[in-house]
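#lab-general

N.A. 3:47 PM
ok so I finally got the sequence cleaned up, no stray characters, all 247 residues accounted for. can someone with queue access submit it? mine expired

B.Y. 3:52 PM
send it over

N.A. 3:53 PM
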Amino acid sequence: MRFKDKVVIVTGGGGKIGKAYALAFAKEGAKLSLPDLVSADPVVKAIQDQGGTAMSVECDVSNEASVKAMVDATAKRYGGVDILINNAAYFMTVKKSPFWEMDVAEFDKAMAVNVRGVWLCAKAVFPYMKQRGKGKIVNISSGVALNGNPNYIHYVTSKGAVISMTRAMARELGDFNICVNTVAPGFTLTEGRQVDPEYERKRNEQRCFKRSQVEQDIVGTVLFLASSDSDFTTGQLLVVDGGTHLL
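B.Y. 4:20 PM
back already:
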């Protein structure tokens, strides 16, 4: 029960990967806040069914007022904020194209959600973590930032920015005993997600572990960085991709 009575915000908590994080935190005693544009009520029910505590909050992470309202509502209900998992991202519906054909609005949307959203959420939780005298922020990047995948320049750039932002945040928040780290997962095959079997086979061949990556492969690393086990670890990038990138 590493997270007994800890207040954990998992942005994008209504999605499949967010759900995996939330269920794991709840199992170890955390009180969950699950902000998302879509309802996280099914995840909340799953947590409550196993005896846990969770709340669903409608939130647009790219909007400062929406983020502040979400964090304040979480703190009002649970008494503060201990941990932030910046998981929300614009990815599933991104439009792919060569960068010279990319629409400005499409580029800006990726940056607004994936970069500004991370910053706004960290900004909003800071006063509550400062009040606690400690805190944990885990920012989710992606292996594409290391690989430079073509036709995703907006997404690749945004996830690269998350890595740099994490380092800057760690420098500024160290005096407040707040750890900030990044996790860069590989392509994760969530339940019900349709992929080209041949492309997935080729992707798996590039890994040391030659199989598809699933949600549970990331959960342990995120929980480690959110726990007291990593209290002297900050500003770091942990790559969780089965050995595709060896840094």
